[in-house]
Amino acid sequence: MNFRSFKKQSFRNQLIILIGFLIVLLIIIYLLFQHNIFHYEDDYVELKDPVKVDPLKADYDIFQLDDSEENLHIKYGFELFINTAQYIGPENGDPEMKYSGNNLSCTNCHLNAGTKPYSGMLIGVINRFPQFRGRENKIGSIEERINGCMERSMNGRVLPVSGNEMKAFVAYMNWLNRFAPEDGKIKGVGYANVKIPNRRVNLEEGKTLFAEKCASCHGENGQGVALREYKGYLYPPLWGDDSYNNGAGMTRVITAAEFIKANMPYGATFEEPELTDEESYDLAGYINSHARPLKPNPERDFPDLTKKPVSTPYPPYADNFPIQQHQMGPFQEIMEFYKAEYGMVKTK
């Protein structure tokens, strides 16, 4: 055999070995897929299944959305939420768009754009509406609830239900809702539970705590810190003409104490609070002891007065306790009256 014949035979042998190797490899791959070793399809379905995503750990970065028509509504809702005064506040530049009567933003109360647990968190809220509310004594829509905030916390007027702003708010809330369970009930809904002391608010203690824990952000006189380039506040005013009116839920000492406990001072959380229950209670009372705007026609709230929270700071009531006790406590005596007289267990 000459060199040329040997080289040709060697090439054939190598080719046969290569083809045999490829055949064996293909057989192995086929068997692996037949026995579902890789699970590619199942993994993909799990990642896309919203039930498998923890709504408290989901990504709510609005800036990842593209500019589709639907996403533009969501983005506008987010903008309204964090820069409320700029778009619909009293100094926005368009008289027809003056819906808010103060320069607060929604995120001043619903922290982290509505995603912080125990701060009136809005994740899942869409699934909890329609909802019965004692203040109106009827089943209400999410749009009605938003307008309740507009008239009270924002000290303004209602948004048109079919208007762009209302649609944008609802679109943003729907987007926050995408990983929520069907009933909308998630850990962190509402506010923290606080054991309310069986005594009147200690205003002097509240004043001292405010100076130590709150004044560095909200100002010595509760005036807040305004933004420099835009309308609105970095830290909101807690009383005075540009704050929430007396019809807002935060004017109830018990509600305010629950909010304060899990969120204040800045940086506090439900898991790592910085204030005790009693300190939160006295701070809430001190903040709400100051003057603020008055909501028109407060007597129309709670048509069934027995459903009125005991710490609602304005009459009428379905009891004979003085208004000062409804404003500053002690509240246990009032709660006991409702249980004995009406069979109602009240916590607020």
From TrEMBL:
**What keywords is this UniProt entry annotated with?**
Heme, Iron, Membrane, Metal-binding, Transmembrane, Transmembrane helix
Domain Cytochrome c, residue spans: 201-291
Top-level taxon in the UniProt lineage: Bacteria
Q: A Pfam family name for this chain?
A: SoxA-TsdA_cyt-c
Record's protein name: C-type cytochrome
Whose protein is this, by species? Christiangramia sediminicola
Looking up InterPro entries in the UniProt record yields: Cyt_c-like_dom (IPR009056), Cyt_c-like_dom_sf (IPR036909), Cytochrome_c-type_DH (IPR051459)
Q: Which residues cross the membrane?
A: 15-33
Q: Which Gene3D superfamilies match?
A: Cytochrome c-like domain
